[in-house]
Amino acid sequence: MANKAKSTSMIELEGELLNAVSYATFYCRLPLFTTFKIFNRSEENVQNVTVSISGNELILPTEISVAEIPHESSVSVTAENILNPKYLADLEQPEKCKVVIKLTHGKENVCALKTEVLALPIDSWSGLSGNAEMLAAFVRPKLADCQKILAEAGLQLKTWGYSSEWSGYAGNDRNAVRNAVAAVYSAIRHLNIERKASADLTETVSTGDISKIVKNKSATPLELALFTASCFEATKLNPVIVIGKNKVGVGVWLYESCFSCSVQDDISVVERYIMDGVNNLAVVDCDDMFAHKNASFTTSASHFESFIRSNSFDVCLDIKRSRIGGIFPLPLKVKTKSGYELLDDKELSYSAKPRQLIDASKYEYSRTESKDKSWQRRLLDLSLRNNLLNFRYKRECLHLLSSDLSAFCERLALKDKFKLSPPASAIKDAAYFGGATVKSMEELIAIEMKSGQLRCYSSADTLSEVVTSLIRKSRASEEETGAKTLYLAFGFLKWKNKNDSEGKFAPLALMPVNVKKGKNSVINIEVGESYEVNTTLLEFLKQEFGIDIRGLDGKELSPKEIITVFRAKTANMKGWAVYEDVYLSQFTFARYAMWADVKKNISEYRKNPLIASLLTNANKMENNKLSGEVEDDGEPCSVITPLPCDSTQYAAVAESAKGTTFVLHGPPGTGKSQTITNMIANAIFSGKRVLFVAEKQAALSVVKKRLSEIGIGDFCMELHSGKSADKGEIVRSIESTLALKCRLSDDKFIAAGERIKSARGTLRAPLDALHRKRRLGVSVYEAILYYLQNKNAPELVDIESTFYDSLTEEKLAECEKMLITSQAAAEECGGVYRSPFSGVCLTECDRGVRTGVLCAAEVLVAELKHLKNYIALFNDTFNQKVSKFTALKLKSLSSILGILKSGELDEFYECDETEFYKFYNANIQYDSAIKLWANRFKTLPEIGKLADKIDSELENWGDNYRSSKHLLTILKRMNKCTDTPLKEREEVDWLKRAKELEEYKKRMFSNTKLGVHFSAMGGGINAKKREDFLKPLYDLHTLCSQVFMDYNADAFNSVCIGASGGQLKPLVTGLMLAIASFNKSCETFLKTLKIDKKETADCDLFEYYTVKCNALIDNIDMLPAWCLYKSTAKGLEDNGLKFMTAAMESGRISGSAILSSFRKNVYRNFIQTNIPADEDLAAFSASVQEATAASYAQLIEEFNELTRTYLRDVLISRLPEPETEGPLALELMAFNRSIKGNMRGFNIRNLFTEVPQLMRIVAPCMLMSPATVSQYLPADPELFDTVIFDEASQMPTCEAVPSLARAKSAIIVGDPKQMPPTTFFTVSGQDEDNPETEDLESVLDDCLALGIPEKHLVWHYRSKHESLIAFSNIMYYSGRLCTFPSPDALESKVTMNYLEDGVYERGGTKCNKKEAAALVDEVIKRLQDSRLKNSSIGIVTFSTPQQVLIERMLSKKISEKHLEDVAYEREEPLFVKNLENVQGDERDVILFSVCYGPDAQGRISLNFGPLNQLGGWRRLNVAVSRAREEMIVFSSMRYSMIDMSRTNSRGVAGLKSFLEFAEKGRTSISVKSNEIILNKQGIGKFIAEELSSYGYECRCDVGVSDFKIDVGVVDPQNRHNFILAVLCDGSQSSFSVKDRTILQVQTLKRNNWNVVRLYALNFFNNPKREIKKIKDFLDRLTASAKPSVSSFKKPYKACKADVKECTPDYILSGKNDAEVVRVIKAVVAAEEPISHQFLIKRTLAQYGISKFGIKLENKLTALIRLCGFGRSKILGNKYYFRTDKYSGFDRYRVEEGTPLRSADTDFTPYDIISLVKGILLNRVSVYVEELLPAVLRELKVRSSEKFTTFISACIDEGVKRGIFIRSISDKLTLS
């Protein structure tokens, strides 16, 4: 049941659930979800996602957190333990249950899925339409009734004359098993069980209670089948149940076996297995077991056979395989007093053993003996599966014509090669053994054998078919196991056990042969040199029958002699016989030598710590720990790596040098063989001896080839079981090695190592400094990253420098924590600035505080309303207005009211209103005039009545006013009152003011009686009294002017006078009380909320408190958040961050930006402080770094080459010299003595025992197969220092033991996720769809189980496109392989070719012909295409029949099209392999044929052969990781056709995922949520943002592994490709300097990337400049112009020597040598560098000589030697120069006029390489095919094949020198 949910946020949820669940689903721990994925379709990573699963009672609510979903990827979520067992156990009827899955991101609901699943009662099965294998859970072998049936059956067996003991498959006797089954059948039949009606088994059915069948005597056929199968399983047999819609059969395997999958839906297999002669299964019809039927066991079996032929059955359920797959017997649901109880197997069986008491003293025990015997048993296969003991003579073998065995063998020895043919005519009455001896053909056989002809009994067609099969299988077996399997068998022993009715045959003597098919289908046999006795048979006879003829082993006897011995020793055995027949077939007995080795020497081997650990399953290796040395700390001259290596490979080599035993994980394409080569080289360099072991010949050959390439192949001896050991070749090899000579010098090597170390340190220092953790717990790089993340945040300008100085890591973390809290709290309460809680200083909030705040606010609102009403009334009464009621105004109003209420003004306001008006205004005017007089005069002049005449006098006198005595008197009085007499121009004005002042006095006294209160004795004014008297009135009006807007004192006075009778008293009193209440509520409010009174000082109280209180009341729920903020803010202020809270509360920074603003400022200060303070960072220069990196790359290349030379010299220097003395000299003499003559006494094994020291020096490295180790090497635990295993995942531990025991330490190289050891190639006649045995445990698995230290290779190099390894990397390696993205990463190189009409012939040929035809057509198309044929091709099939079919079809087509050379005559020939034997192979293009799919009826079987096995997923991992460039999957089924609810096979699940990946691409692969690797985002995001502003589309973190390209720029002209990779110096702690500076860049460039580096320091200092550089680079990349050149171009300066033309004799005479030398030097001076040929031509041209012969050339060559020029040899030519100005490859020359140069020898590689370099500087990267015409055009040379070849050679030289990097698509870039 598939479901999908989408959301607008590009997040999708997809899941597949089981259609039905029951208690069995829970009990067997099957997941509800078969697949559960979250897709992220966006271009950004999504973090912190939560998946919630809920439903009704069926589902236990579950939340699953997913840390991160990478962009454009998916994550697989594992939902475990979500089914409710109680609900499922209690369920009585089927119910549909809802399942709801929700996806949330933070608080946002992203998407959801809703579906239903059917819940079944505990006794229900979902039928054939559901999960058929769940029926196995209802087979319960521990039922008590089963024991009753077995007791009855035992009695029946006794009556038949057999033992009544139930021993399962002991004795391996099929008849005994069949009899036991028949006895059980009989016992159940005697119960007379009545048949109940049967339901349709394709639907959900009840399985009933089988524990009550015996009691109730009734059952349905299904229930009876389950009960019968329970009884069979109780006898330790492997039952099967065969089911159809209305029919059920039950039976057992007749031998110890099971199907490869739980549900076998290919019924033809069952039909074949029950046939007579095969007898793998015995099955009866369940209907025959009921009371109404009378059928014997044999009759019932025949009934079943007839029903199966009539297609009455659909599937066969294998109970044993189901148990292996985790389907266990269900508990019984038993009714009790309190309800129901579930009883499991142990509680059901009355014979169950009681639980043992724990005895701690017995915890330590040893299983040494059993493990030892297990190894021996596996090494020597004594089961009847072994063709050496039970020869399968009816299939895949050829019976050869032989009349006399002795004569046959003699004739066979005369020739090396024979032609094998069918008989000339059919041979009648031919028997398999001992039949017609064809005596009549004896002479013909002799004649034909003499002419090289052998004949067999088979027809021509059968011969061809069998030979083809034998060749294919033997080749595959030899490639995989390293052992020859094709033999001629001479003589056969017929043997049998006592109770056997028929005998079995075993070969006696064997000879290895090679069989080949030649032209016209001619079959050739190449025979071996010697015979080998069947040693396995010898041991079998001793163990089983006590016949000891093991002395035959090792004796050189003829087959006739061997047969004679066997006849003599078995003559007394009844029914036994010996025959002299000859057969060609497959046999495997390479393990015998290992078995004998282990058996004989195990006591000695136990002393080896690793062997002891394996024997006891406990790690006994003391002090075996990893040193952890990394490349950047290593000494180049101490740990040598002649081949290039990455940091993980170096770490493995360094660890091997320490003598540590460890496991080296080597996933596909990670350079295992390269690493092994380096480990071997480093070990023998250090004087150690190494044993390299691999089963495959190819693995040994690859390492041997690499060792030879680095110059030490002479010191490595290869001995493989698949390769005959040629004694002569070995001796010649040793002699050749001993003859080697050298001159050893350390200085150059050591100096080069020091230069490497220095350059590495220079590159490492700034990087380490950039990423070193500093005072704040962050590195400078991290600080730059944090700064860039927050660069747009607001500035903080008022931070004190002391704050930065006080910061520590702990304080910073605390501050950020508080800022985050305050930010969250601020956001929750609506922000800080202008918050309703602004000014509130509460830091804690509980229920009491909340209530207090609410009450205070509500009371204040009420009081405020009351006060506002009074004030409004007051204003109306007094006709006043108030604009803003501040606290000061309120206080003034209170004072006004106090004055009014006090009665102080009663005397004023009791006056007449008009009189008071005049009085009041006169006083006001007088006060104003007094202020003016006070500014000019010290005192007021006494004018008195004189003032009355001032106006008249001024009028009379006019301008002569000083003539008036009256006025003059006044002026004199005025001048007396001032220090500065009045000026004339002032006098008139002051006279008039004097008049006004007197007028004001008169009015004060004339209108009211109030003046009396301040009159002086002389009638004047007493100023003091006046001030005191008027103060209450003045104070009132002053206060009023402060309170009221546009205050009118007269109006106020008028109201007061009008109400002088006390009418205002209630208003005044009420208002005063209102103000008092308001003030009190304000104080309470401020106190409760801890608001500073200063907050309200200048506010409009009414507005402030109204808004504040209402806001508080409305937002009271936010009070806790505000209190949290204030609490945090207090902490911030205590830590010196008051500037942060101040900025936030003032509104300069919003709450959401507070943290980012803080980080921006802190980290900017951190960067600006730390960079200048760090020596490496302060001196950092990008250009210097780039130059050093280029130099370092060149140094590495040179050092590797030097290392190879030095290593070889060191090894040669250890060889014995003629003057060598001591034991080594004696061993050398012994060796020379033993090899003299015909080497009859020479034995390879003796080399290691007689001359051990010599062999240690001559062959410090041995490359061997496991078998040859036991065959040739003495059992000496000190023989080797280290043993290295390759492909250890495929090597059984038993085979590895002899090699492990001969070394002090071991390195186990392999991949536990690849092919396990298998018997596929060692068991003849194996049915691959239904293998009889499981995979074996490997030495790798056993060492991992012991906890042996582990190292990992992680860099993947094989795949040229990341999509080719993406499936394996994500699916099986959790994304931990470091892979390199491809420029076309937006597309996948894994594609699906879906063949809708393809049919899998299930039950027939087991092939898919449509698929095969389509695949073959694709191969032929590629082989015929001029471009595509350059890519090597490999074909992988999922089954052997499909492999055979494709091979046959392909061979025919290739032959028809004459494509043999293109297909096979190449470095990597075309291959066709299957899942079992493709490991170790790789090709450019891999074509898959899935084969499996819908059959003719459209049904899809879930039996996918080896994929169904427990290790099936490992096979799939191998198969899908073989391609370098492209993978095409041919399939007749889509992934959606595979129903995972029907199987729990991991291999099948992997196939489904792979098909989905092939269809959909990378996003379909889901990483498990608990395996996600969180990659820290670098500065790439910010670079991408900047580049996007220029219009370029960018992607960040391109790649699916740990290694990612920081920024990938999409090609604007092809949006499916990237045009540029930007690499930054982010944190890559697992990568070494070499990884970063060389490996990453070079590999990306080889994969067609254009690469630029951007350094974080530069980007921080000047981001615009750095982005502009990249933008310019991109502009050059996208330019469409033809390749052009730069300033490298220089004019060619031709030499013009001042000489006369002459004849050649002038030069040849010798008299003019000095003159000729001068000319030669002139030519070189002008035209350097110059080739030898062109120098001769140009010298002769000076003398006018254009043609010359050998004499003249030799003469000039001799003269050139005298000149002492500098010279170099490049591409086989000599070039001369005086200076080295061209050595930098930065200039080339072009003739300005008529070209002087035309031939390739006229030009130099310096010119060509410099020209190409100049073009690349302009265009960055150019395809070679574009470069060639550009170079020719620039040099003005005509195109020719010879010149084009020269240019190509120069380009290759540039690549070799590290100047260029050539990509896989032939694109050239600068290093």
Structure description:
About 1% of the residues have low confidence. Strands 21, 22, 23, 24, 25, 26, 27 and 28 form an eight-stranded mixed beta sheet that branches. The protein is α/β, with parallel strands linked by helices and 1871 residues long. It is built from 65 helices and 53 strands.
Quick recap of the structure?
By secondary structure, the protein is an alpha/beta fold. Strands 21, 22, 23, 24, 25, 26, 27 and 28 form an eight-stranded mixed beta sheet that branches. Strands 31-32-30-33-34-29-35 form a seven-stranded parallel beta sheet, with helices on both faces. The chain has a five-stranded mixed beta sheet with strand order 1-2-4-7-41, with no helix packed on it. It is flat, with a radius of gyration of 52 Å.
